[in-house]
């Protein structure tokens, strides 16, 4: 591809110069007066631009304006292509340089850092860490520090959440100068760099001074503000969920990425032995349906049993999205106390909600709903619901599979396709 682009560029340049050479003699003879030939110009400063302006004007002055415009477009395109080619070359060079340096850092230090992180002694001295890393003090450049941030984020994948050995990893960051780099960039750096750094800081369990965090939690840039508040939530022990309980949460939109980050943070907090936020008050003050559904799912994953029982109130919600999410949450949590409640409401639901209840009962797996699944198959008016009931029988337990096979023997030719769909592992999916 590069050879083709270079060939096109050279061909355009060659064409322009051939045309210029074939006409330059005539143009010099008849149009030397336009440039102020009696004047003397020295080729320095602004006169250089004037020289090329007159050269271009004399070279194409006898051509129609269409041809002159075409030549101008060709020249500008050649120059633009040259600039783009240079930019591409710089990007390729930087990408290769960064990849080479990152590979060097990982080969030299990564395994040693993993050993330090998992060391039983949580407060190794800086000298001991330097000795184990075989680290020679040096001043890393800014672009090298960005590579270090990627390496440290990757190192966090091997960090024990319940005992991440923060003291040792903090001293590693201090030793290589990463701590000073982050603090300097968060104060003086560009806003987009601050957002990326805050995410890296949170993922690497790095400790920031309270003064820096306090200056960023209310920043006017919404992305930086969100990133800082997520970090605050992970590190603060006095009142970590203060910003979730603000009234402004009702007016803040949650993107899919925001929801993923919050879910990951709640997971790390729960695995670290710390309490997750109280989700019921968040549900009560949230109006946007998408955020209500999100917090309902978080209750299913991390909430208490009392909070899960609170979701029963959404079984009769006029908002069918919330109602559907409530049924799904019972399956996520495998909350067997909800079985009887959902069964009592089953025949009041739409077909979509009925399928959600069936999937929730399958996930709960109490083992006593085989006859209910069979009854739903025989009496449902929707083939999708019939297939969901058959899928529940097939996956429920051995008794359910036996009932499934008996129903298959008695099924009509029209319904045989439903059984084949369920038995085929490729298409046995509740979303189909």
TrEMBL record:
Residue spans crossing the bilayer: 69-94
Name of the featured protein: HEAT repeat protein
Origin: domain of life: Bacteria
Transmembrane helix as UniProt keyword: yes
Keywords: Membrane, Transmembrane, Transmembrane helix
